[in-house]
Amino acid sequence: FDLAVALPPVADGRATVRGRAAASFIDVRDGERTVMRVERAEATGVDVDWPRRVAVRDLTLQRPWVLLERDQGGALTLRALLSPRAPDGSGPGASALSASAPIRPLPASNGGSTIPITVDHLVVADGGARTVDHRVAPPIALDTQRLTGRIDGLSTDPSAKPARLDMTGR
User: Fold this and answer.
1) Are 19 and 3 in contact (CB under 8 A)?
2) Is the CB of residue 87 less than 8 Å from the CB of residue 101?
């Protein structure tokens, strides 16, 4: 990490972060299996104005892999896993989640909407994915390898323009 962090008094509920960050050997699990992993991730131009927005100029993912799974009801299971959660009935001072604790979505912090996250340029190098669809009969699975490419203008902001995707794989 090479970050400048400004934390005003806690009562303000704000923070700013600027700089760059990198991490290696990231493994996201759902309790039973890996659902995402990245050998190395590097972000430059990190610009966070919490709780208003999170922006990254360049994000490079080396050897990422993701499990994209649709359940019988048509929902993407990864989306539910990555949603903010807390033990049911917990307050701000709650301790870590236990595997058996009931979970509920956390309330949004800015008037009912989520914090927009934007990535100007996302580069994927030697990635992979497993797509599983339980909604169709019989269920199908498709493995994609050697994913390499770029996504420009990626954003969770509903008012953002569509992202541009240029990806190849096998």
Assistant:
1) yes
2) yes
Asked whether the whole model's pTM tops 0.85, one would answer no
Query: pLDDT, tens digit, for every residue of 89-118?
Result: 444 333 333 343 333 344 444 444 588 999
User: For every residue of the chain, which 3-state class applies, written as one string?
Assistant: CEEEEECCCHHHCCEEEEEEEEEEEEEEECCCCEEEEEEEEEEEEEEEEECCEEEEEEEEEECCEEEEEECCCCCEHHHHHHCCEEECCCCCCCCCCCCCCCEEECCCCECCECCCEEEEEEEEEEEEEEEEECCCCCCEEEEEEEEEEEEEEEECCCCCCCCEEEEECC
* 12 — pLDDT class (breaks 50, 70, 90): confident
